[in-house]
Amino acid sequence: MATKDSSVTRRSANRPRFRILAVDDEENVRRLYRNALVGAVKGEGDDAPDALHALEASLFGGGSDSANAPAADGPAPGDPFYDLVLCRQGDEAVEVARVAARDGKPFAVAYIDVRMPPGPDGVWAAAQIRTILPDTHIVIVTGFSDMSPAEIARRVPPSDKLLYVQKPFHASELRQFSVALGTKWQAERALREAKASLEGKVVERTADLEKANAELRREIEQRGKAEAALRRLSAAVEQASDIVAVTDPQGTIQYVNPAFDRVTGYTCAEALGKTFRILKSGKHELAFYEQMWNTIARGQTWRGRLTNRHKSGELYEEDCSISPVCDAAGEIVNYVAVKHDVTAVAKLEAQIRRAQKMEALGTLAGGMAHDFNNLLMGIMGYVELAGVDLPKDHPSRDYLREAMTAGNRARDLVGQVLSWGRQPEQERRPVLFIPIVKEVAKLLRASFPAAVVIRQHLSALNDSVVADPVQLHQVIVNFGINAEYAMRPAGGVLELAIENVVVEEAQRDLHVNVPPGPYVRLSVSDTGCGISRENQDRIFDPFFTTKASGEGSGLGLTVVHGIVTSHGGCITVYSEPGRGTTFRVYLPCADQAASVDADLYLDLPKGKERVLFVDDEAVVRSVGALMMSALGYRVTAKGSAAEALAIIRGAPHSIDIVVADQSMAQMGGEALAHEILRIRPDMPIILCSGFSQAASLQKAREAGIREFLSKPFSSRELSLAMRRALGDRSEESQSGGDASGGAGHPSRGASVTGTQYL
Asked: What is the CATH classification number for the domain harbouring 682?
């Protein structure tokens, strides 16, 4: 802690008083601080006035500054009133600073030596004191330091409250530093106090404004003093950002403040003598206004949100409170309205509600994805198995292939819905645009009213683009839905066109803003109501919609624009009100041919290995076991992780590969895989899931799981994944033949060799 004589005072009448902290492990230096800043104390011989100059000479050399310095026992003119506290070590100084902060007696200046063995160095102490007393000016005093000034400044910010003094120094320098820094500290403190006082006055002024509003109501009660009350309040309400308006009992406007002009577009002169019906938007029913008038006519205050119309015709929203003003007899003589423009807030609230709704839908979709994909697994698996036994020229194979195509589309759509919440990287590959347009046209024709005629002009010779087919599907559907809405109720013509175009450098403008080259152009035209010029600049903005409330989210074209731009394309729009709209989408032609889906019933790699298949969904367990058996594997199917573990523990080498569902009751697939790998570290494991996050898949890979299958999976995906997981043992796998001795495909109801069901 501080030394016994650590706190000494230099008293000077009528001078400002502040405290100084000095930290040094050398007694001579502390004596110098005391004599230079406080002066002689009678009865202490080592602090005698004549000793100061001798001390300076012995420590720092007898220069002229020391010789000519003022006497230490009397303050120089203008010297402040000091309280000096001396400490030997940095940790003592830190404790003193804590006590000073606790007692509300902060130090204006702190002189801190850098080297003070055996305790911590002065830079550490300075950093601690800065944390405790952030306003104290710290002076680093040193003869030699291992630390650069830049490093000290980094550790003891801010730089405007940090100074350096090189030993040796003289008493006059010390006094000058103390006067300057102490005066600055006092000025800063006074400034902070003044700021706090000013803020307090602002609070008072705010309270005064609220009080003035209350006074307005009281003053208007006396009709003979109404004009005087308005004049007294004008200074407050004339500069208010909110509308303040006064009407007579019939609603005729008698006064509005300047904010009325800014918010509504009507000047004060235009408003006087009118009613607020000049702002009527048509968005409120008659019953709404009747309830408002009934409330204020009973002498009560009405509060609510209004949608009004600006002079320009644009709608805006405001929070409004209308209060009656009564005379001494209790009769209503005026109404006073205070209105706050909340247009921006209302739009933000709507956007937040919509975003929350989408987030909730995404969360719901994620929770449903696993169960939905399990259902698809059963449907698609049995469809695929049904076609295995049919002759290649059987007409039902085409029906089954169409069913599989629809199932794959459903699987892709589930993934698209899930992308709301997790935004995965979409799979893009060369695809043919025309078949997608034809498919969407079928969908739209089935869902649109008969009054809408759909025409197709599919003339492109090269319709191959690198894209996510589900997203292309989504683009066309969004355009189609908007077109049908624009043609209500009379109907009209919707045209879908695909053609090849070449964009030249000279043709590029602000609308077709894509690099030169060959493109596939999708055109979607309708004969609807069209889009106004001002709205054409906003149709791709998030949450912008011209549809009635509840009929559109304002996100459809935003999503379309994001999809197209992410594919390296662009969108143009041409519209004439009353005549219709044409959207054109430009997508780069693919450099490689689009892939054609493989035949579902081509020969697949097979095997003879023993498979443990674990899934708690009976339909998935059944169809999965049938698919594996058809590929020649000997399958043991179990409905829980506990049953599967019992087999592995009993005979670890009776199984060659494990295929397990990720999401199961009690114990999931990852935990099951962990237990199996503890028993048999070389066991190949495939994890299946109807909904997996990338983070969990990465974690599973690190845990030793070899392959992943997303439900619903096909026999081809299953076959290839199993061969990869098994290391493609060529002596056990066959491509083309029947690994089960020509058994072919197990029919529904027949026993499956090597398959056990629970």
From this structure: 3.40.50.2300
353 in a domain, yes or no? no
Positions in the chain whose pLDDT score sits under 70:
1-16, 39-81, 144-146, 223-224, 226, 228-230, 233-234, 351, 353-370, 412-427, 505-511, 542-555, 592-603, 691-698, 728-758
Distance CA 252, CA 271 (A): 9
Which range marks the domain in which residue 397 is found?
A: 364-413+601-758
- Per DSSP, what are the bridge partners of residue 141? 113, 165
Neighbouring C-alpha atoms within 13 Å toward the C-beta of 505 = 0
CB-facing half-sphere around the CA of 281: CA atoms within 13 A: 17
Residues contacting 4, CB < 8 A, separation 6+: none
CATH number where 476 lies:
3.30.565.10
Answer whether 84's CB lies under 8 Å from 8's CB.
Answer: yes
Say how far apart CA 721 and CA 584 lie, in whole Å.
41
Q: Report residue 63 as tokens.
A: 């220069």
Regarding whether 144 and 121 lie in a shared domain, the answer is: yes
211 falls within a domain: no
pLDDT digits (tens, 9 = 90+) for 212-224: 777 877 877 776 6
Shared-domain flag, residues 126 and 175: yes
Token pair listed for 102: 């606790």
Give pairs for 308-313: CB < 8 Å, separation 24+: 308/264, 308/276, 308/279, 308/280, 308/281, 309/279, 309/280, 309/281, 309/282, 310/263, 310/264, 310/265, 311/264, 311/265, 311/266, 312/265
Parallel, antiparallel, or unpaired: how do β-strands 734-735 and 605-606 relate?
Answer: antiparallel
> Domain ends where: 136, 170, 189?
189
Number of independent structural domains in the chain: 4
Residue 609: its pLDDT value, please? Answer: 93
Residues 735 and 631: their CA atoms lie apart, in Å, by 10
The dihedral through the CA atoms of 300, 305, 310, 313 has a sign that is negative
Count CB-CB contacts under 10 A for residue 745.
22
- How many Cα atoms sit within 13 Å of 170 on the Cβ side? 17
Tokens linked to 507: 């043709």
**Does residue 580 lie within any of the structural domains?**
yes
Residue 66 and residue 101 in one domain: yes
Same domain, 318 and 383: no
Place of tokens 């304002």: 554
The pair of three-digit structure tokens given for residue 446, joined into one six-digit string: 């089935």
Q: CA 159 → CA 130, 154, 186, 681, distances in Å? A: 11, 8, 18, 60
DSSP strands (E only) in 390-540: 429-432, 452-458, 464-467, 492-503, 517-526
Closest alpha carbon to 420 in 560, 566, 571, 559: 559
d(C-alpha 704, C-alpha 228), whole Å? 86
List, for residues 314-371, the tens digit of each pLDDT value.
Answer: 889 999 999 999 988 889 999 999 999 888 887 777 767 666 666 666 666 666 666 7
For residue 585, the model assigns a pLDDT of: 93
Rounded to whole angstroms, what are the CA distances from 548 to 186, 237, 731?
64, 38, 67
Q: How many Å apart are CA 172 and CA 135, to the nearest integer?
A: 24
624, 373 contact by CB (below 8 A): no
Q: How far apart are the two ends of the chain, measured CA to CA in Å?
A: 79
pLDDT of 692 reads: 59
> Do 393 and 478 belong together in one domain?
no
CA–CA separation, 497 vs 305, rounded Å?
47
What pLDDT score does 457 carry? 92
Question: Residue 56 domain-assigned?
Answer: yes
- This prediction has a pTM of 0.39
DSSP for 87-105?
Answer: ESSHHHHHHHHHHHHHHT-
Q: How far apart are CA 370 and CA 376, in angstroms?
A: 10
Strands (E), 219-331: 243-247, 253-256, 302-309, 315-326
